[in-house]
Write a structure and sequence with these properties.
single chain; mainly beta; Lipocalin; 11-stranded antiparallel β-sheet; 2 helices; 23 strands; 42% strand; elongated
């Protein structure tokens, strides 16, 4: 998704390649020669720092050296020091660094853990390896080019989804994030949900208890009003799921990532991966 930019994208470097012109004045017009000047030619600029990409989202327009699943482009988003990558199934996200023009995750990325068709699962594995190993990154206007060995991927800057679109929809928890590691909701526990009205007033199901909260969207932040819930005793593992939900659904978020039907909300070392419908 494309958020209000937190840092300016690096300016495109333009280099004017001007050739000299000369003539031989020997009285014979046929001996005159002129070398035409060339127009200024834009050149790609290596990405120098995390701030160069802050607040941007890119989607692949061409890939050489690898065949993507048809109709499933690669989408890469940057916010602060977090990079999120998706290509038709799961969303992977985590902290990243830029070193000498090469960007890569700086640790093990978390994932939304959606069950994928085999070809999309393979594509996710390829992407995880690509961004773990690292890619050389250059900017040319609205085009981001990523290179690793024989793979050359061109991506173009795209508009992000507005967080206001989350209002009036149902958010279902599909993954629980703790210290950057994502796990599924345990078998036998119903998936926690937030049924969010257009006004933000929301019905909350923690997977054990039910209650109410209010969701407020402000630019790039989601804030939850302190929830009020029933006080039914929760057996394990539902008790742990409820604790994970309430650790996030209370107060302002630290990080939000939203694209297609996947929403990731983190607060401190805790996070929830929602499927939005």
């Amino acid at each position: 998704m494309r958020r209000p930019r937190l840092g300016a994208t690096a300016a495109l470097l333009l280099v004017g390649l001007l050739a000299g012109c000369g003539s031989s004045d020997n009285g014979d017009k046929s001996g005159d020669s002129t070398t035409p000047s060339t127009s200024p030619t834009p050149t790609s600029t290596p990405v120098g720092a995390v701030a160069d990409l802050d607040g941007t989202t890119y989607e692949s327009t061409s890939v050489e050296g690898h065949e993507l699943v048809p109709g499933k482009p690669v989408r890469v988003s940057f916010e602060g020091d977090t990079m999120s990558v998706s290509a038709g199934c799961n969303t992977m996200f985590g902290a990243y660094d830029v070193t000498d023009g090469a960007l890569a995750w700086s640790g093990e990325p978390a994932s939304s853990l959606v069950a994928c068709e085999p070809e999309l699962a393979d594509q996710d594995a390829w992407l995880a390896d690509l961004f773990t190993t690292g890619v050389d990154a250059t900017l040319d206007g609205s085009t981001l080019t990523l290179t690793s060995g024989d793979v050359v991927m061109e991506l173009t800057d795209v508009e992000e989804t507005n967080l206001e679109d989350l209002l009036g929809r149902t958010w279902t928890v599909r993954g629980i994030v703790v210290d950057g590691v994502t796990s599924r909701v345990p078998s036998g526990v119903r998936n926690p949900t937030l049924v969010v009205s257009k006004s933000g007033l929301s019905r909350l199901d923690t997977g054990c208890n039910t209650g109410r909260t209010r969701v407020t969207v402000d630019g790039e932040t989601i804030t939850f009003a302190p929830p009020t819930i029933t006080r039914q005793a929760c057996p394990a593992p539902a008790r742990g799921v409820q604790r994970a939900v309430l650790a996030v659904v209370d107060g302002p978020s630290d990080h939000v990532w939203y694209a297609a039907s996947t929403l990731v909300v983190t607060k401190g070392n805790r996070g929830l991966v929602f499927e939005v419908s």
